[in-house]
TrEMBL record:
Residues 1-23 form the signal peptide. InterPro entries: Leu-rich_rpt, LRR_dom_sf. It comes from Magallana gigas. This is Uncharacterized protein. The keyword Signal applies. Keywords: Signal.
Length: 323
Protein backbone atom coordinates (compact mmCIF):
# COMPACT_ATOMS: atom_id res chain seq x y z
CA UNK A 1 0.00 0.00 0.00
CA UNK A 2 2.83 2.35 0.92
CA UNK A 3 4.61 1.60 -2.36
CA UNK A 4 1.45 2.39 -4.34
CA UNK A 5 1.05 5.72 -2.53
CA UNK A 6 4.69 6.56 -3.18
CA UNK A 7 4.29 5.72 -6.87
CA UNK A 8 1.26 8.03 -7.17
CA UNK A 9 3.17 10.88 -5.51
CA UNK A 10 6.10 10.37 -7.87
CA UNK A 11 3.80 10.41 -10.90
CA UNK A 12 2.19 13.63 -9.65
CA UNK A 13 5.60 15.27 -9.19
CA UNK A 14 6.77 14.10 -12.63
CA UNK A 15 3.57 15.44 -14.25
CA UNK A 16 4.02 18.76 -12.46
CA UNK A 17 7.60 19.23 -13.66
CA UNK A 18 6.71 18.00 -17.17
CA UNK A 19 4.04 20.70 -17.48
CA UNK A 20 6.36 23.28 -15.94
CA UNK A 21 9.09 22.40 -18.47
CA UNK A 22 6.60 23.00 -21.32
CA UNK A 23 5.86 26.48 -20.02
CA UNK A 24 2.39 25.55 -18.76
CA UNK A 25 1.03 27.67 -15.92
CA UNK A 26 0.63 24.91 -13.35
CA UNK A 27 -1.07 27.27 -10.89
CA UNK A 28 -4.40 26.67 -12.69
CA UNK A 29 -4.22 22.97 -11.83
CA UNK A 30 -4.87 23.66 -8.16
CA UNK A 31 -8.34 24.96 -8.99
CA UNK A 32 -9.37 22.27 -11.46
CA UNK A 33 -10.55 18.72 -10.89
CA UNK A 34 -9.40 16.41 -13.66
CA UNK A 35 -11.27 13.24 -14.59
CA UNK A 36 -9.70 10.06 -15.93
CA UNK A 37 -10.72 11.09 -19.46
CA UNK A 38 -9.16 14.54 -19.14
CA UNK A 39 -12.30 16.55 -18.31
CA UNK A 40 -11.51 19.69 -16.31
CA UNK A 41 -13.97 21.10 -13.75
CA UNK A 42 -12.52 24.46 -12.66
CA UNK A 43 -13.65 26.92 -10.01
CA UNK A 44 -11.97 30.25 -9.25
CA UNK A 45 -12.79 32.79 -6.57
CA UNK A 46 -11.40 36.09 -7.82
CA UNK A 47 -10.47 38.81 -5.35
CA UNK A 48 -8.44 41.06 -7.67
CA UNK A 49 -7.91 40.32 -11.38
CA UNK A 50 -8.13 37.13 -13.47
CA UNK A 51 -7.05 36.68 -17.10
CA UNK A 52 -9.14 34.37 -19.29
CA UNK A 53 -6.47 34.41 -22.02
CA UNK A 54 -3.89 32.87 -19.68
CA UNK A 55 -6.38 30.18 -18.75
CA UNK A 56 -7.06 29.59 -22.46
CA UNK A 57 -3.33 29.21 -23.11
CA UNK A 58 -3.09 26.72 -20.25
CA UNK A 59 -5.86 24.64 -21.84
CA UNK A 60 -4.03 24.75 -25.19
CA UNK A 61 -1.08 22.91 -23.67
CA UNK A 62 -3.04 20.13 -21.98
CA UNK A 63 -3.01 16.71 -23.61
CA UNK A 64 -5.33 14.92 -23.46
CA UNK A 65 -8.10 17.43 -22.78
CA UNK A 66 -11.74 16.46 -22.37
CA UNK A 67 -14.68 18.78 -21.72
CA UNK A 68 -13.98 21.93 -19.69
CA UNK A 69 -16.30 23.54 -17.14
CA UNK A 70 -15.30 26.97 -15.80
CA UNK A 71 -17.02 28.67 -12.86
CA UNK A 72 -15.86 32.07 -11.60
CA UNK A 73 -17.17 34.04 -8.62
CA UNK A 74 -15.75 37.46 -7.79
CA UNK A 75 -15.59 39.10 -4.41
CA UNK A 76 -15.92 42.90 -4.14
CA UNK A 77 -13.37 44.49 -6.49
CA UNK A 78 -12.79 41.31 -8.50
CA UNK A 79 -12.52 41.60 -12.29
CA UNK A 80 -12.02 39.37 -15.33
CA UNK A 81 -10.27 40.09 -18.60
CA UNK A 82 -12.46 38.05 -20.93
CA UNK A 83 -13.03 39.24 -24.53
CA UNK A 84 -16.28 38.33 -26.26
CA UNK A 85 -17.27 35.68 -27.38
CA UNK A 86 -15.33 33.86 -24.65
CA UNK A 87 -14.00 30.94 -26.66
CA UNK A 88 -11.45 28.42 -25.43
CA UNK A 89 -10.47 24.89 -26.32
CA UNK A 90 -13.19 22.39 -25.35
CA UNK A 91 -14.93 24.91 -23.08
CA UNK A 92 -18.46 23.57 -22.60
CA UNK A 93 -19.73 25.42 -19.55
CA UNK A 94 -19.02 28.97 -18.36
CA UNK A 95 -20.58 30.51 -15.25
CA UNK A 96 -19.66 34.01 -14.02
CA UNK A 97 -21.04 35.72 -10.90
CA UNK A 98 -20.50 39.13 -9.30
CA UNK A 99 -17.66 40.21 -11.62
CA UNK A 100 -16.47 43.23 -13.57
CA UNK A 101 -15.88 42.02 -17.16
CA UNK A 102 -13.17 43.77 -19.15
CA UNK A 103 -11.88 43.59 -22.73
CA UNK A 104 -15.28 43.09 -24.39
CA UNK A 105 -14.30 44.41 -27.85
CA UNK A 106 -10.66 43.27 -27.86
CA UNK A 107 -11.21 40.37 -30.28
CA UNK A 108 -13.89 41.91 -32.50
CA UNK A 109 -11.64 41.85 -35.59
CA UNK A 110 -9.88 38.57 -34.81
CA UNK A 111 -10.85 35.39 -36.62
CA UNK A 112 -11.00 32.84 -33.84
CA UNK A 113 -8.88 29.71 -34.11
CA UNK A 114 -11.17 28.05 -31.58
CA UNK A 115 -14.35 26.39 -32.84
CA UNK A 116 -17.67 26.94 -31.10
CA UNK A 117 -17.94 24.61 -28.12
CA UNK A 118 -19.89 26.38 -25.37
CA UNK A 119 -23.18 24.75 -24.36
CA UNK A 120 -24.00 26.61 -21.13
CA UNK A 121 -23.23 30.29 -20.51
CA UNK A 122 -24.41 32.10 -17.39
CA UNK A 123 -23.47 35.68 -16.47
CA UNK A 124 -25.17 36.87 -13.30
CA UNK A 125 -24.90 40.02 -11.15
CA UNK A 126 -22.03 41.39 -13.23
CA UNK A 127 -20.92 44.58 -14.97
CA UNK A 128 -19.51 44.68 -18.50
CA UNK A 129 -16.96 47.44 -18.95
CA UNK A 130 -17.14 49.10 -22.38
CA UNK A 131 -14.68 51.64 -23.73
CA UNK A 132 -16.63 54.27 -25.65
CA UNK A 133 -13.59 54.83 -27.88
CA UNK A 134 -13.39 51.11 -28.71
CA UNK A 135 -17.10 51.06 -29.45
CA UNK A 136 -16.75 53.99 -31.86
CA UNK A 137 -13.83 52.26 -33.62
CA UNK A 138 -15.83 49.05 -33.95
CA UNK A 139 -18.73 50.97 -35.49
CA UNK A 140 -16.41 52.78 -37.92
CA UNK A 141 -14.60 49.67 -39.13
CA UNK A 142 -17.50 47.23 -38.72
CA UNK A 143 -15.49 44.32 -40.09
CA UNK A 144 -16.51 41.96 -37.32
CA UNK A 145 -16.24 38.28 -38.08
CA UNK A 146 -19.38 36.12 -38.07
CA UNK A 147 -17.81 34.18 -35.22
CA UNK A 148 -17.68 37.40 -33.18
CA UNK A 149 -21.10 38.82 -34.03
CA UNK A 150 -23.00 35.56 -33.56
CA UNK A 151 -21.03 34.42 -30.56
CA UNK A 152 -21.17 30.70 -29.90
CA UNK A 153 -23.88 29.02 -31.95
CA UNK A 154 -23.48 25.75 -30.02
CA UNK A 155 -25.25 27.12 -26.94
CA UNK A 156 -28.00 25.04 -25.35
CA UNK A 157 -28.64 27.33 -22.38
CA UNK A 158 -27.86 31.06 -22.21
CA UNK A 159 -28.47 33.20 -19.11
CA UNK A 160 -27.76 36.89 -18.60
CA UNK A 161 -29.31 38.27 -15.42
CA UNK A 162 -28.75 41.58 -13.65
CA UNK A 163 -25.87 42.41 -15.99
CA UNK A 164 -25.24 46.12 -16.57
CA UNK A 165 -22.71 48.22 -18.50
CA UNK A 166 -20.06 50.68 -17.38
CA UNK A 167 -18.64 53.10 -19.98
CA UNK A 168 -15.01 54.26 -20.09
CA UNK A 169 -13.29 57.07 -22.01
CA UNK A 170 -16.40 59.21 -21.95
CA UNK A 171 -15.95 62.76 -23.28
CA UNK A 172 -16.92 65.61 -20.98
CA UNK A 173 -20.36 66.56 -22.24
CA UNK A 174 -23.58 67.75 -20.60
CA UNK A 175 -25.91 64.92 -19.65
CA UNK A 176 -28.32 65.44 -22.56
CA UNK A 177 -25.46 65.62 -25.09
CA UNK A 178 -23.98 62.44 -23.68
CA UNK A 179 -27.26 60.62 -24.15
CA UNK A 180 -27.46 61.92 -27.73
CA UNK A 181 -23.94 60.67 -28.45
CA UNK A 182 -24.67 57.21 -27.05
CA UNK A 183 -27.89 57.08 -29.05
CA UNK A 184 -26.08 58.05 -32.27
CA UNK A 185 -23.38 55.41 -31.76
CA UNK A 186 -26.00 52.80 -30.96
CA UNK A 187 -28.09 53.67 -34.02
CA UNK A 188 -25.01 53.54 -36.29
CA UNK A 189 -24.05 50.17 -34.83
CA UNK A 190 -27.56 48.80 -35.35
CA UNK A 191 -27.75 50.05 -38.93
CA UNK A 192 -24.55 48.24 -39.85
CA UNK A 193 -25.68 45.09 -38.06
CA UNK A 194 -28.95 45.19 -40.02
CA UNK A 195 -26.99 44.85 -43.27
CA UNK A 196 -24.58 42.15 -42.11
CA UNK A 197 -24.02 39.53 -44.84
CA UNK A 198 -24.54 36.45 -42.64
CA UNK A 199 -27.09 34.74 -40.40
CA UNK A 200 -26.69 33.29 -36.91
CA UNK A 201 -28.13 29.81 -36.33
CA UNK A 202 -28.61 28.70 -32.74
CA UNK A 203 -29.69 25.20 -33.66
CA UNK A 204 -29.34 23.73 -30.16
CA UNK A 205 -30.54 26.59 -27.96
CA UNK A 206 -33.38 25.51 -25.66
CA UNK A 207 -33.37 28.19 -22.94
CA UNK A 208 -32.67 31.90 -23.39
CA UNK A 209 -32.77 34.38 -20.52
CA UNK A 210 -32.12 38.11 -20.38
CA UNK A 211 -33.68 39.18 -17.11
CA UNK A 212 -33.44 41.91 -14.49
CA UNK A 213 -31.94 44.27 -17.05
CA UNK A 214 -33.77 47.63 -17.05
CA UNK A 215 -31.28 49.09 -19.56
CA UNK A 216 -32.52 46.99 -22.49
CA UNK A 217 -32.73 49.14 -25.61
CA UNK A 218 -36.04 49.79 -27.33
CA UNK A 219 -34.97 47.62 -30.27
CA UNK A 220 -33.67 44.71 -28.21
CA UNK A 221 -36.08 42.14 -29.69
CA UNK A 222 -35.32 43.22 -33.25
CA UNK A 223 -31.61 42.93 -32.48
CA UNK A 224 -32.21 39.49 -31.00
CA UNK A 225 -34.14 38.11 -33.97
CA UNK A 226 -33.32 40.04 -37.16
CA UNK A 227 -30.47 37.85 -38.42
CA UNK A 228 -30.80 35.02 -35.91
CA UNK A 229 -32.67 31.72 -35.91
CA UNK A 230 -33.85 29.71 -32.90
CA UNK A 231 -35.49 26.58 -34.32
CA UNK A 232 -35.56 24.63 -31.03
CA UNK A 233 -35.97 27.31 -28.35
CA UNK A 234 -38.44 26.13 -25.70
CA UNK A 235 -38.26 28.83 -23.03
CA UNK A 236 -37.68 32.60 -23.19
CA UNK A 237 -37.23 34.55 -19.95
CA UNK A 238 -37.50 38.35 -20.13
CA UNK A 239 -38.68 38.96 -16.58
CA UNK A 240 -37.89 42.02 -14.43
CA UNK A 241 -36.84 44.25 -17.33
CA UNK A 242 -39.27 47.16 -16.79
CA UNK A 243 -40.82 46.55 -20.20
CA UNK A 244 -43.65 49.00 -20.82
CA UNK A 245 -44.89 47.52 -24.09
CA UNK A 246 -44.88 44.22 -25.94
CA UNK A 247 -42.53 44.23 -28.97
CA UNK A 248 -44.00 42.97 -32.24
CA UNK A 249 -41.46 40.14 -32.24
CA UNK A 250 -43.14 38.79 -29.09
CA UNK A 251 -46.66 39.32 -30.40
CA UNK A 252 -45.60 37.24 -33.41
CA UNK A 253 -43.46 34.87 -31.32
CA UNK A 254 -43.99 31.94 -33.70
CA UNK A 255 -41.92 33.57 -36.45
CA UNK A 256 -38.68 33.58 -34.48
CA UNK A 257 -39.39 30.87 -31.91
CA UNK A 258 -41.53 28.16 -33.57
CA UNK A 259 -41.00 25.63 -30.76
CA UNK A 260 -41.55 28.02 -27.84
CA UNK A 261 -43.72 26.64 -25.02
CA UNK A 262 -42.92 29.07 -22.17
CA UNK A 263 -42.49 32.84 -22.16
CA UNK A 264 -41.73 34.65 -18.90
CA UNK A 265 -42.68 38.33 -18.93
CA UNK A 266 -43.34 38.61 -15.21
CA UNK A 267 -42.33 41.58 -13.04
CA UNK A 268 -42.36 44.13 -15.86
CA UNK A 269 -44.44 47.30 -16.35
CA UNK A 270 -46.77 46.06 -19.09
CA UNK A 271 -50.23 47.62 -19.16
CA UNK A 272 -51.59 45.67 -22.12
CA UNK A 273 -50.76 42.53 -24.08
CA UNK A 274 -51.80 40.83 -27.28
CA UNK A 275 -50.51 37.72 -29.05
CA UNK A 276 -51.39 37.09 -32.67
CA UNK A 277 -52.81 33.80 -33.88
CA UNK A 278 -50.33 31.91 -36.10
CA UNK A 279 -53.26 29.97 -37.63
CA UNK A 280 -52.42 26.87 -39.69
CA UNK A 281 -49.30 26.33 -37.58
CA UNK A 282 -48.07 22.74 -37.59
CA UNK A 283 -47.58 21.85 -33.91
CA UNK A 284 -49.61 20.34 -31.09
CA UNK A 285 -48.02 21.98 -28.05
CA UNK A 286 -49.49 25.15 -26.59
CA UNK A 287 -47.74 28.24 -25.22
CA UNK A 288 -47.82 29.37 -21.58
CA UNK A 289 -47.12 33.05 -20.90
CA UNK A 290 -46.23 34.26 -17.42
CA UNK A 291 -47.49 37.84 -17.04
CA UNK A 292 -47.60 37.90 -13.25
CA UNK A 293 -46.91 41.16 -11.40
CA UNK A 294 -47.31 43.63 -14.25
CA UNK A 295 -49.72 46.60 -14.46
CA UNK A 296 -52.43 45.02 -16.61
CA UNK A 297 -55.97 46.15 -15.76
CA UNK A 298 -57.86 44.23 -18.44
CA UNK A 299 -57.10 41.44 -20.96
CA UNK A 300 -57.52 41.94 -24.73
CA UNK A 301 -60.99 41.56 -26.26
CA UNK A 302 -60.16 38.27 -27.96
CA UNK A 303 -58.62 36.80 -24.80
CA UNK A 304 -61.38 34.20 -24.48
CA UNK A 305 -60.29 32.74 -27.83
CA UNK A 306 -56.66 32.18 -26.84
CA UNK A 307 -57.28 28.63 -25.62
CA UNK A 308 -59.02 27.68 -28.88
CA UNK A 309 -56.35 28.81 -31.30
CA UNK A 310 -54.25 26.57 -33.53
CA UNK A 311 -51.60 26.98 -30.83
CA UNK A 312 -53.50 27.35 -27.54
CA UNK A 313 -52.17 30.10 -25.28
CA UNK A 314 -52.59 30.11 -21.51
CA UNK A 315 -51.75 33.28 -19.57
CA UNK A 316 -50.96 33.72 -15.87
CA UNK A 317 -52.24 37.16 -14.82
CA UNK A 318 -51.91 36.87 -11.06
CA UNK A 319 -50.58 39.96 -9.31
CA UNK A 320 -52.13 42.38 -11.85
CA UNK A 321 -54.78 45.03 -11.04
CA UNK A 322 -57.45 43.25 -13.12
CA UNK A 323 -60.81 45.00 -12.90
Amino acid sequence: MENARTAVIKLFILAYFFEYSKGIDVSFRRYCKRSFLGDQDCYFKVREHWDFLKFRKWLDNLDPLGDVSLRITCTEGGSLYIPWPMRARNLKRLEIKNCLLRGYFDEHDVKSRYPDSLEVRSIVNSVTEVSLLDWVNVVKSMQSEKSYTCGQETLVRSIVSNNTYSFLNIPKLPGSKMLELLSEISDSFREKVRTQPFECHYKNLLYLENSNNPSLGKHFMEDLTLHSHYPKLRALNLSSNRLTYLPIELKKWYRSFPKLVYMDLSKNDLKTFSFLDPKRFGRNLGLHVNLRNNDISSPPRDFYRYSYRSVPISVDLRGNPIR
